[in-house]
Amino acid sequence: MARLAAQPLILAGQGWADYALLDSGDGRKCERYGPYRFIRPEGQALWRPRLAGWEADGAFIPGADEDGGGRWHFHRPVPAEGWPLGWQDLHFTAHCTPFRHLGFFPDMAPVWEWMEKMLAGQADAATLNLFAYTGVGSLVLSRFGPVTHVDASKKAVAQARANAALSGMGQRSIRWLIEDASKFVRREVRRGKRYAGIILDPPKFGRGPEGEVWRLEEHLAPLVADCRRLLDRESRFLFLTAYAVRMSSLALAGLLAEHCGDLPGAIEHGELALGEEGEGARMLPTAIFARWRNE
Ligand SMILES: C[S@@+](CC[C@H](N)C(=O)[O-])C[C@H]1O[C@@H](n2cnc3c(N)ncnc32)[C@H](O)[C@@H]1O
What we know:
By secondary structure, this protein is an alpha/beta fold. 22% of the residues lie in helices and 32% in strands. It is built from 6 helices and 18 strands. The protein has helices spanning 109-119, 136-141, 154-166, 181-190, 216-229, 249-260, and strands at 3-4, 9-13, 19-25, 28-33, 36-41, 58-61, 71-74, 83-87, 90-94, 127-130, 147-151, 174-178, 197-200, 205-207, 213-215, 237-242, 266-275, 283-293. The strands form 4 sheets. Strands 1, 2, 10, 11, 12, 13, 16, 17 and 18 form a 9-stranded mixed beta sheet that branches. Helix 2 links the parallel strand 10 (127-130) and strand 11. Helix 5 packs parallel to helix 6. The protein is globular and about 55 Å long. Bound molecules: S-adenosylmethionine. S-adenosylmethionine (SAM) binds at residues 104-105, 108, 131-134, 136-137, 150-153, 156, 180-181, 201, 203, 206-208, 212, 214.
């Protein structure tokens, strides 16, 4: 029986050569992505900034509508086609997207490291990356065996393939699928497939390639139930995140306990955060997570 941890964990990313959270405060954050600095809205930065006079190459100014809208304003030229960044031996393209992010999520770095630990020593571990976006997680997983990368967005999957090529990993065994995550997993269940590890990073709301509606509150539980059917006692992990939702990590943990409780190992939960750089640094929360790990 997987043990359910009572206390939450904080998985805090500390930045690396190509990424830093420089400061945050007054509802905004200032970050460095390689040679460029950007200011973006950040609702959870309730405190005051530590540094005076943020200098940035660009800023995302939100529209009047809280949930979307807004646009980038550039103070200095930033390549519209993007620029290369690295993490460990991986390379990928960052760019200023209309959705206010930069084409990858730096707060996932501790998750990538954790998955590496969970798969250490394996060479043929089949893994599944759902809602996989531009695929840094898929490249990490591809070190340990074949990966199935599933995302609804043609553009995101094309960018993920380009990132694999940029990393010199174009020949790795990665299936790139433009599919609705729930539909794909249901099909895999019918085919009796098994995976060594599954990561899912669903948005609050999304659409599959054929307009299939994804609403986290409604569709997460059946998806997790189906994901469980793709795992067995030899599998290594399932990692689930959620962001921009009114939900506690306890809720995600309860869901995993319901479906993965019969497996060996442990179920843990908590928050992902980014640590600011420098003296007096604070931790900016970014998402909640729950995970099942085999021991
Ligand atoms: C925030 S991103 C995930 C980030 C990613 N895990 C990473 O670390 O780079 C959410 C992704 O879910 C995808 N998506 C939304 N609805 C979907 C659906 N029904 N099926 C599959 N993917 C979907 C979007 O295209 C988007 O790429």
